C-alpha cells in the first residue's frame, strides 16, 4: 500500500495538534435526534471548540440517509446537515446501501463545506438495516467497499471515514476490521461492541490492543504517523475516563493506544463535556462543575435555539428528551422536570426556568 493513497485531509492537522498536546483526539459522536443543529451549536459554544483547552476536536452530524438526500424529501434532511461556523471541523455522517446515492450525497456534503464524510456501518436500527445499510454492511463487505469507493468519488478531496462495530454476532475484528484497514481510510471509529450486543454490555475496551496491533500489521508498509487513525467508542463518561480507558489498554510502552475517543451519551445535559478547564478531576481549584443556574441557562438557550432552527420540522418532544439530563441531581429537580415535560414551546420553558432562576437569586444571563 502506498502512503500517499490515504487522503487525510483536515485529519492530518487534527492528529498533529493532538500529538503536540500529548493527548488523544476527542470527538463528538453522531447521535440521531440529539446532536442536531441546535445542540451542536450549544456544545461548540460551551465546550469552547477551537479555543485552547477547548473541544471537541471534531464534530459529527447525526446520520443522514443518502437515499433521502437524493430524493424530493431532501429539504427537510438538509436541516440535519445545517451547521454554524464555530462547528468546524465537522463531518457529515451518511448511510445507504446504494453506491450511486452515496456518490451523489457525498458530493453534496463536499459542496456544503463539510470537512469530512463518514459512513455509518454500525447502526443496529431496524429501519436502517432493512435498507441493508448501517450494521448490515458488516455482513456484506463487497457492498461496503463499493459504498466507500462511491463516497470517495463523490467527496473528491474531502476525506471519507467509517464508523462501525467490532462484528455482527461475534468478535469479527480479524475479518471485518482487517478488511476495513485494507481500504486506506484516514479514520476508523470502532464502537467496541458487536451489533448483537447493541449497548447492553460494557464496551470491550480490552479489545483495543487487538485492533491497534492489526492496524500496524495490515499497514506495516506505511510510516507509523500516516496509518489509519483509530478512534475508540463506547461508555466513555468524561475526558479523564477517556484517558484512563486509553492508557489502561495501551500496552506497556503505550504503543497499543487508540489515537482518539468518541463521546456519545456523555454529552446529554453536559455541553461543557469537552472543556478541559472545567473537567479536570482531582485538581482542586480547577474543578468547576456547572452550577444549577448555569445548567438551566444552557437548557433554556438550547431550547430557544432548537425552536428557532428546527421548530418547523421537528417535534418539540425531541427537545424535551434533554430535560432529564439538564435537570437532575438537586433538591426540586424532579418537580421542575415534571413541569418542563408538560411544556409545548420555548416561551413556556422560559417562563418556568426564569422563575426558578429568580428564586435562586440568579436572574437569567443574557448572552
Ligand atoms: C440516541 C442515540 C442516537 C445515535 N445515533 C447515531 C447515529 O446517528 N450514527 C451513529 O453512527 N451512531 C449513532 N449512535 C451510536 C453512538 O454514536 C455511539 O456509538 C454509542 O452511543 C456508544 O457510545 P457512548 O457509550 O459514548 O454513547 C446513537 C446512539 C444513541 C444513544
What is this structure, in a nutshell?
The chain is an alpha/beta fold.
Protein architecture, described:
With 367 residues, this protein is an alpha/beta fold. It has two domains: 3-285, Aldolase class I (TIM Barrel, Alpha-Beta Barrel); 292-359. Helices cover 39% and strands 13% of the residues. It is built from 15 helices and eight strands. It has an eight-stranded parallel β-barrel with strand order 1-2-3-4-5-6-7-8, surrounded by six helices. Helix 8 (173-181) crosses helix 9 (208-218). The protein is globular and about 65 Å long. The termini are far apart. Residues 29-32, 34, 62-63, 93, 120, 122-123, 163, 191, 233-236, 263-266 line the site of flavin mononucleotide.
- Span of the ends, CA to CA: 52 Å
Q: Total helix count?
A: 15
Oligomer category: single chain
Task: Write down the CATH class of the largest domain.
Answer: Alpha Beta
- Would you tell me the structural class of the helices and strands? alpha/beta
Question: For the report, how would you describe the main beta sheet?
Answer: 8 strands, parallel, barrel
- Which second-level CATH architecture of the largest domain applies? Alpha-Beta Barrel
- Provide the helix percentage: 25-40%
Spans of at least 5 consecutive residues with low confidence: 282-287
- Ligands bound to this protein structure: flavin mononucleotide
Give the H and E element order.
HEHEHHEHEHHEHEHEHEHHHHH
The domain tally reads: 2
- Based on CA inertia axes, which overall geometry fits? globular
In the CATH hierarchy, the third-tier topology of the largest domain is known as TIM Barrel
Which sequence of strands runs across the widest sheet? 1-2-3-4-5-6-7-8
Mean pLDDT across all amino acids: 95
How many strand units? Answer: 8
Cα-atom Rg, whole angstroms? Answer: 21 Å
Beta content: 5-15%
Amino acid at each position: 500500500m502506498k502512503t500517499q493513497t490515504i487522503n487525510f485531509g483536515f485529519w492530518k492537522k487534527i492528529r498533529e495538534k493532538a500529538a503536540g498536546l500529548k493527548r488523544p483526539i476527542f470527538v463528538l459522536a453522531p447521535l440521531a435526534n440529539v446532536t442536531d443543529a441546535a445542540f451542536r451549536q450549544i456544545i461548540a459554544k460551551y465546550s469552547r471548540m477551537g479555543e485552547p483547552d477547548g473541544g471537541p476536536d471534531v464534530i459529527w452530524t447525526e446520520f443522514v440517509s443518502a437515499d433521502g438526500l437524493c430524493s424530493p424529501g431532501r429539504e427537510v434532511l438538509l436541516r440535519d446537515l445545517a451547521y454554524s461556523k464555530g462547528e468546524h471541523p465537522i463531518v457529515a455522517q451518511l448511510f445507504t446501501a446504494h453506491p450511486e446515492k452515496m456518490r451523489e450525497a457525498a458530493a453534496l456534503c463536499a459542496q456544503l463545506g463539510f470537512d469530512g464524510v463518514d459512513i455509518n456501518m454500525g447502526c443496529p436500527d431496524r429501519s436502517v438495516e432493512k435498507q441493508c445499510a448501517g450494521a448490515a454492511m458488516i455482513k456484506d463487505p463487497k457492498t461496503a467497499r463499493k459504498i466507500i469507493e462511491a463516497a470517495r468519488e463523490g467527496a473528491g478531496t474531502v476525506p471519507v471515514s467509517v464508523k462501525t462495530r467490532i462484528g455482527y454476532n461475534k468478535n469479527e475484528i480479524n475479518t471485518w476490521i482487517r478488511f476495513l484497514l485494507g481500504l486506506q481510510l484516514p479514520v476508523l471509529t470502532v464502537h467496541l461492541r458487536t451489533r448483537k450486543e447493541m449497548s447492553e454490555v460494557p464496551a470491550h475496551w480490552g479489545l483495543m490492543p487487538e485492533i491497534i496491533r492489526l492496524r500496524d500489521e495490515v499497514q506495516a508498509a506505511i510510516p507509523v504517523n500516516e496509518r489509519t487513525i483509530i478512534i475508540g467508542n463506547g461508555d466513555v463518561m468524561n475526558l479523564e475516563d477517556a484517558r484512563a480507558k486509553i492508557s489502561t489498554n495501551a500496552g506497556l510502552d503505550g504503543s497499543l493506544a487508540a489515537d482518539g475517543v468518541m463521546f456519545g451519551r456523555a454529552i446529554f445535559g453536559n455541553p461543557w463535556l469537552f472543556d478541559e478547564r472545567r473537567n479536570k478531576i482531582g485538581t482542586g481549584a480547577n474543578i468547576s462543575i456547572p452550577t444549577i443556574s448555569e445548567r438551566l441557562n444552557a437548557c433554556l438557550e438550547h431550547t430557544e435555539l432548537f425552536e428557532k432552527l428546527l421548530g418547523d420540522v421537528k417535534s418539540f418532544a425531541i427537545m424535551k428528551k434533554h430535560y432529564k439530563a439538564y435537570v437532575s441531581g438537586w433538591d426540586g429537580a424532579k418537580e421542575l422536570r415534571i413541569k418542563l415535560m408538560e411544556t409545548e414551546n420555548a416561551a413556556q420553558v422560559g417562563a418556568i426556568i426564569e422563575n426558578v432562576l429568580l428564586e435562586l437569586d440568579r436572574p437569567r444571563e443574557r448572552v
